[in-house]
Amino acid sequence: MPFDLIRGQEHAVGVLKRSLEANRVAHAYLFQGISGCGKMMAALSLVEALFCGVNPPCGSCPACRKLATRQHPDLHLLEPEKGIIKIDRIRELQKELSLRPVEAPKKVCIVSQADQMNQAAANAFLKTLEEPPGNALLILLSDTPTALLPTILSRCQRLRFNPLPLEIVVELLLAQGIPTEQARSAAALAGGSMAKGIAILQEGFLARRKEIVEQTIGLTPRDFALLTTTAERLGHEREQAQEVVEVLTLFYRDVMLCRHGSTPAVNADLMVIVARTAGLLSTRGIMERLEAVIGAGQSLLRNINPRLTLEALFMALAAGK
Fold first, then answer.
1. 110 phi and psi, to 5 degrees?
2. How far, in Å, are 168, 181, 184, 185, 308 from residue 174 at the CA level?
3. Which end of the chain is more exposed for a tag (fewer CB within 10 A), N or C?
4. Structure pTM?
């Protein structure tokens, strides 16, 4: 995969291309940035350039063809299993890296979600970084680099990958055949992540978002029975409750923008509902709702019961002016 296919990451790509041209590729990198912004694409592009020996890679030699299917014997992909990278996986990796490359100039390991290493795995991995095999390259990918050991961070060359600009996400979604309105709505909600934009469309998030908004903005103190049943249904699982909080946070932020004459940043496809709500509420009323939603999000982080959290949130929304 040529570097030129990676969108919106000019700085990081430029650093990698210059390293290749100067033959000064580091022994360990940390690519940090939100999920779906191009970290894995950049890692595979770097490996392809190294294994092919030509930059940009030819795309047709045996090395390029094997990398295209991730079947190259000198490329090792390490990913979490059930959300954790355990020490036995690191030991397997250490054994592989101790061997000579089969075909390529060096062995490469890409560690996806490296921050998911448990304590034992992280300590074992640190030893590999401290005494790296001479013909190995380690590339760590992380959404949350602060969760990694400081000693691991200090031994990697860190490259920041920024959230993708809105228009690039829209363009990439359109290229996949997504209708324009859906592409723009998903891109606005994706926060710069192509992966999240695709997930929003595949998982029916846009329809759920509209349902959540319509069911909550019209609640009044007289709707106590409806309020509690809605909280029970939407707060059945913590992840579901967190989605409700995320939807309402973005919705009331857009209501505030609309109240003061600006275009909604995220919920443009719900403009009618946003504008109607902005016309019914005072600035103070919108702020009170935002504070209630943010408070509910903090309660969920403290592991308070999700149904009770949403019930309290809906009561606050219903009582607001």
1. -105, 120
2. 10, 10, 9, 12, 40
3. C
4. 0.80
Which residues have CB under 8 Å from 60's CB, separation 6+?
none
Nearest alpha-carbon partner for 99 in 70, 67, 133, 131: 133
Q: Please report the pLDDT score of residue 226 as a whole number.
A: 82
With CA atoms as reference, report the closest residue to 268 among 198, 209, 208, 195.
209
Cβ burial, residue 203 (10 Å; 0-12/13-18/19+): exposed
Query: Which tens digit of pLDDT belongs to each residue from 158-178?
Result: 999 999 999 999 999 999 999
Burial of 206 (0-12, 13-18, 19+ CB in 10 A): middle
CB of 93 within 8 A of CB of 78?
Answer: yes
H helices within 4-61, ranges in order? Answer: 10-21, 39-52
**Which residues, 6 or more positions from 27, have their beta carbon under 8 angstroms from its beta carbon?**
132, 136, 137, 138
182: its two tokens = 């859906």
C-alpha span between 216 and 225 (Å, rounded): 13
**Residue 33, exposed/middle/buried by CB under 10 A (0-12, 13-18, 19+)?**
buried
Planar angle of CA 226, 232, 234, nearest 5 degrees: 95
CA–CA distance, 109 with 116 (Å, rounded to integer)? 16
pLDDT tens by residue, 271-309 = 999 999 999 999 999 999 999 999 999 999 898 999 999
